[in-house]
Every structure is written in C-alpha cells, then in structure tokens.
Design a protein that fits this description.
The structure is a homodimer.
Chain A lengths: L2 E5 L3 H12 L3 E6 L2 H9 L5 E4 L5 H5 L8 E4 L5 H14 L4 E4 L3 H9 L4 E3 L1 H14 L3 E6 L4 E7 L9 H4 L1 H5 L1 E8 L3 E4 L12 E7 H9 L1
Parallel strand pairs in A: 1-2, 1-4, 2-3, 4-5, 5-6
Antiparallel strand pairs in A: 7-8, 8-11, 9-10, 9-11
Chain lengths: 218, 218
Amino acid sequence: MKQFAVIGLGRFGVSVAATLRAQGHEVLAIDNDEENVQSVQTEELVTQAICLDSTNIHALEELGLQGFDGVILAIGEDLQASILTALNLMELGVKKLIAKATNANHGKILERMNVPQVVFPERDMGKRVAQMMMQSSILESFQLDPRFSVIEMKAPDHVLNRTLAQLNLRVKFGISVVAIKHGGTELAIIPGPDHVISENDLLVIIGDNQGIRHFLQI
Amino acid sequence: MKQFAVIGLGRFGVSVAATLRAQGHEVLAIDNDEENVQSVQTEELVTQAICLDSTNIHALEELGLQGFDGVILAIGEDLQASILTALNLMELGVKKLIAKATNANHGKILERMNVPQVVFPERDMGKRVAQMMMQSSILESFQLDPRFSVIEMKAPDHVLNRTLAQLNLRVKFGISVVAIKHGGTELAIIPGPDHVISENDLLVIIGDNQGIRHFLQI
Ligand SMILES: Nc1ncnc2c1ncn2[C@@H]1O[C@H](COP(=O)(O)OP(=O)(O)OP(=O)(O)O)[C@@H](O)[C@H]1O
Ligand SMILES: Nc1ncnc2c1ncn2[C@@H]1O[C@H](COP(=O)(O)OP(=O)(O)OP(=O)(O)O)[C@@H](O)[C@H]1O
C-alpha cells in the first residue's frame, strides 16, 4: 500500500485519485476550491482531502509530500498555478512526479524545469478518438513506436473460419495476432497456427501501421 | 480521404480535429464561441470552421452532416448543450457518432439515447496516469478486458541476459512477451525462445493483471 497526493481536483485529477484509492492506496487530495475538496470527501474517493493553495510552499511543506510515493499535479487551466506548484514540488524533492500539461507550451515549460513525467490527457485522448473515428473497426489502439501499433479490432469478414496458418498474416500484411477474444470472455494469448477465427472474435494485433491499414482496407 | 465534423473546440475537440486533419481528412470545426473558431482557423488546424449553436437544429441542418463520414461531439462542461446536440445529431441521422461524456451520469444519458459510442477522456486518462504512478516501471498499458492487459515496460533486472526459453515467463507468471524494443528502434515481434533480453530493452507483455503485478514485484 502506497501513499500518493493529487493536486488539482478537476475531472482528470479526481479520476487519478479515485483509481489509486480503488487499488487500495492512500490518497491525499488537494485543491484550493472548497467545493471540490468537499465533493471528494463526501464521495469518499480519497483518504484525506485538504483545501489549500499549492502555489504557497509553506502550505505544502507541512504535508510531508517528499515522504509520499508520488505526487500527481493535475492543474490544467491556470498555467501560472501549475508552473508555481511544479516549482514547489521540485524544490521539496518529491520522489515521483507526474504533471498534466494542457498544451505544447505548457508541456515544454514543465519539461525544461525537469519535471520527470509530463502527460497531455486531452491531446492523447483526442488522438485516440480520432483513430477510433478513422478506422471504424478499431476498438482500441496504442502506438508502440512511430511505426508499430497494438490494436484491438473486430475480426474482418475476410479472415473468418480459417486458421491462422492458412491466413499467413505475417507474410501477407506484416502483422501478428497476439490474442483473440472469443465470445466476450475467453482470451487466447499468442494463439497457435491451428486456431480458427470465428465471427465476432476480437483480434489483438501487432504490426506496422502500413500493414495494419492494408489489413483493414481489404 | 474522408470528411468529419467536430462540435466543441475545447482541448479534446481540437486534438481530435487536428489529428484527423493531419491524416489528410477534411475537418469541419464547429463551436459557438467565436474566439475558439478563430483560433483553429488561424492555426489552420481544420479545413473549415463555423461559429454556430449546435443545439439549434436549423443551424445544423444546413451543414449536410448526414453526408459526412462521422461527427465527434466534444462538448463537455455544458451538459444541456451536449445532450441537445446529441439529440439533433441522432435526428439528422449522422453515419457515425462519437460523443464525449464528462462523468458517469452524462455518459448514461447519452447511452440511453443510443448514441453509438460514448468516450470518457478525462476518466480514461486518469486511470492510465494512475497506472503509470502505481507501477513505475510501466510506460504504457491498456486493458484488453477486465482480467488481461497489454503493458510496455523496461526490462526488470531479474530477466536480463537470459533467453525467453530460460525465463519461462508463461509458466512462472502467466505472461507472454509479444514484442521487444531494443536500442530504441529495433522491434522484435513475437520473439522466439532463444531471444535474449538486454538491459534497457522495452518489453511489451500480455498477461493477466495478477501475473503482471507479480512479475513487477520481483
Ligand atoms: N493554486 C492552486 N492550488 C490548488 N488547487 C488549484 C490551484 N489552482 C487551480 N487549482 C485547482 O486545480 C483543479 C484543476 O484545474 P482545472 O480546472 O484547470 O482542470 P482542467 O485540467 O481544466 O480540467 P479537467 O481535469 O476537468 O479536464 C481545479 O479544481 C482548481 O480548483
Ligand atoms: N451549444 C453549443 N454549440 C456549439 N459549441 C458549444 C456549445 N456549447 C458549448 N460549446 C463549445 O464546446 C466546447 C468544449 O466544451 P468544454 O469547454 O466543455 O470542453 P471541456 O470538455 O470542458 O474541455 P476540454 O476539451 O478542454 O477538456 C467549448 O469550446 C464551447 O464553446
């Protein structure tokens, strides 16, 4: 069981806090808006919630954050508050810090301050939803590197009722089926060459982006 | 080349629009705030940008959205505007609709209206960042289903300089290495039993959540 702090109780911050809490960790939630503090307290989403201004280092010092396993800085809109809070957390020397940035410049400033991990929630989700929109058969995807992705998709018609050996996808498209979800619950991981693909199976595929696109377009 | 519309130019909506445009598609951006419309126009992030109130069906009708390949509804804060716009889009009969919801109730309302795909950007990113925080070695993860995940992580010390056959991870932890990134650029997909794991390799692993946690804790 670890101890984390989340600063900034917008929707993203609250979701981080709730997920950490649901996994059994201690979560200290911080916001300077009393209503936000009250609502996480009422919903029992966190272990403890405090109303304070995180740009004020004296207020933060009392919390012993450097003893926590990590801090998530989830202030978005107010650039100045985010930067000043990041400065405070770096000066306190917290063990692990992930900070949200709302745009490229915000991210560059945090990175130049050597904030160890900067995330771009809206930008990343925007990219993922655009992917869902462009490739209607893709349910989920993540970029392994600029050329390769892992995607989850409904088995297309042209592969149904045939074995993986017959389909020879690695040779034809440069893609590999790493898992097949059958009937919603069964998951075959690294299925063998005799595995037959059935209608409505979900395929988890790794491949280069071009090969995946090609496979989708047939 | 397809044609999409994005309604609501918050950070998420703008990211969806920009990603679609970067892939070469036509993007019509819609917002009732003139400043937001101006800024996507100035930055040339979209093909066309229009200032109108999407809760007004007459304004929407003129756009021929039912002929578009899809529409993304990205209004978050204003629940009423999101619901009314969703109603309009369903009545116009757009081909593909993905709508953003900001919380569980917002999502339930859209789902009950039979909006085909509802996404929760802040909630989902909150979960992913919580994962990054809890498992410091995990770089990226996605949930295949409630029990299985695909994760990308730095090779832990206890597996270095040994072959996959020697490590026997499937038997010991119930996990499979589906790809190994070496030196930042080389990617071995479904590596063979003689593949040796080197320091700084990134492993892409599929396994059940318990097995992954166990593997990480050694
Ligand atoms: N100086 C500060 N000290 C503590 N909390 C702050 C400070 N400044 C802003 N906050 C809080 O940060 C929280 C999150 O900020 P914001 O509303 O910008 O989030 P967001 O990133 O726009 O939204 P979301 O997370 O909902 O996408 C707000 O609840 C706000 O009260
Ligand atoms: N009736 C409407 N017609 C058109 N656009 C609207 C309407 N109501 C709200 N919008 C626009 O929707 C956009 C996105 O809404 P909002 O600010 O709620 O996004 P968000 O989800 O909170 O933020 P983000 O996407 O930045 O995380 C705003 O730019 C707003 O002007």
